[in-house]
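Proteins fold reproducibly. Next comes an illustrative record:
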Amino acid sequence: MRGAYIRMHLAIFLWGFTGLLGKKILLNEGMLVWYRMLISALCIFLILFFRRSLPRLSPKKWLQISGIGVLVMLHWLTFYGSIKASSISVAMICLSSIAMFASILEPLANKQRFDYVEIFFSALAIVGISSIYFSDVNASIGVILGVISSLLSAIFSILNRKIASDHEPLTISFIELSAGWLMLTLLLPLYFSFKPTDKFIPDFTDSIYLLILAIVCTVLTWILSLQALQKVSAYTMALALNLEPIYGIILAVLYAEEAKFINGWFIAGSLIILFTVICHTWYKFRKSKKAILI
């Protein structure tokens, strides 16, 4: 059990580096995501190939999982777009609103009744995000992209949960990453017409960062999290994931000189969101405990 907790927290800590690496890589968000998905998909393919467990699914299942992969691609595109447009701190704190979006979308997807306490927490999160939005006029586009990224993450997480028990997680990841990469490849000409760039090939430094992002912060963290979930509960993992934005912001302040972006409005908004996440987690724990007793 101790080893599982170490793997879990190591995976979450490494995920905290994704924002910092996104800022350090000089490619625009389109090319950054293109390379990340390509390298990650190739690594997982090699794992599946040597394990002789390449996916054998019906065309319908391939299409279903591929659709989720497109959402993953759009999530990463808006997440790194948020970082490029504003700062790591803004993108990371907006990421904290994923649970709030899920509290509204999950009942719709599962045809369940709304929990109005969770909707209240969602409203509090919106207040916190609004405070960050007004903390810096120049960061407004980054906040909007960050919120869209969180919404997309909540959607594909709900959809993934529906198919997770039917297929091996690495199989799902391979199909999603491959499909997301293929769709992004098709969309790049249109994307570049809106956001032109003259840098398509990463230099040596960017190549090193991309390899770390894809192999260490994507493939390795996924394997570590899967190993941890064999021993710890999904709820424990979800609770610990709230540390990811905190790690990300600390790393941004230490290594990306982002302390200058943190003003009173940003701190107020961040505290509201952090308070909301803690209260929401406590509420979900009490709710699940009550359900077990019943």
